[in-house]
Amino acid sequence: MNGRILKAISGFYYVQCGSGLIECRAKGIFRKRGLSPTVGDEVTISVDQNEKGVIEEISPRKNAFIRPPMANIDQFIVVVSAVSPSPNLFVVDKLLSIAEYKDVEPIIVLTKLDMAQLPGVADIYRQAGFTVIEVDYQQKAWKQQVLDCLAGKVSAFCGNSGVGKSTLLNHLGLGLSLKTGETSEKLGRGRHTTRHVELFQLPFGGYIADTPGFSDVDLHRQEGILKDQLQYTFREIAPLVGQCKFVGCSHTCEKGCAVLAALEQGKIAPSRHQSYVALYQAVKDIKDWQL
Fold first, then answer.
1. For residue 183, which of 23, 84, 99, 198 is within the disulfide window of CB 3.0 to 4.6 Å?
2. Where in the numbering of this chain does the CP-type G domain appear (predicted)?
3. Does 183 show up as a binding residue in the annotation?
């Protein structure tokens, strides 16, 4: 039978086949190949008389992520809170960079706007060409916007701990009843209430994943984005590649740089360019063989 892995815990994989969920182990051959099944994988399984399954094959992946561990994702729902914790645009830009690199469509959802405002943040990302949804739980318009984005897609909700991913999903009225937690005032970030990645099937088609919160992404080590590729993962920078005065421009400080000119003209937000420069500095000395 063919199915999709919805959950993976302690070496057990829970595969949806039709309307049923089958607990499976993976064949040892995958370990020898250095391949491990992950949530989102489309797989072929066999089932014995006790209704215990074995994963026999893993279909080619559209994409795969190390953190959070998922495969075959259509879009990232990047959740950013207005307060508790305060927004960290550098982390947001790292997530967007990874999404672009993996050919995943990012959608930005700003939460807790009923508690505080985020002046200018929505404009930064709309100017860069991203879809931005603003969530005020005292209003209703946002809910249908989010549901429309989710329909028929495999979507991963991600962002720092405490930004309100699980709360947001619970407010959508999909009956998920996900556990939520408080933000640690001492650490300034949320306590981890989601312990593993799990896909939930939507009644109107598609899946959503609630993923463990994380505050940092080891961009170059985990996802393999090197300095020459980084420029293409910022969608307002990518069209300007090749327009600079000098070949091999890093877009950080050079004269005749088309990206810096666009920055001065207000076509690129300063925070976005600052994130690009910080990421470039982090990856500029990394070689392929070091990954």
1. 84
2. 62-217
3. no
Does residue 112 have a known ligand-binding role? yes
Place of tokens 């421009």: 249
Average confidence score pLDDT of the chain: 86
User: How does residue 51 score in pLDDT terms, banded at 50, 70 and 90?
Assistant: confident
> Is 114 annotated as contributing to ligand binding?
yes
| Domains in the chain: ranges and CATH | 2-59 (2.40.50.140), 65-210 (3.40.50.300), 220-290 (1.10.40.50)
- 267 annotated as ligand-binding: no
What's residue 212's pLDDT?
62
Neighbours of 202 (CB within 10 A): 19
**Does residue 164 have a known ligand-binding role?**
yes
188-209 pLDDT per residue, tens: 344 444 457 889 889 889 999 8
Which residue is associated with the tokens 């809910």?
A: 143
Q: What's the burial of 37, exposed, middle or buried (CB within 10 Å: 0-12/13-18/19+)?
A: buried
Question: Cβ distance 53 to 6 under 8 Å?
Answer: no
Q: What is the pLDDT of residue 190?
A: 44
149 is in an annotated binding site: no
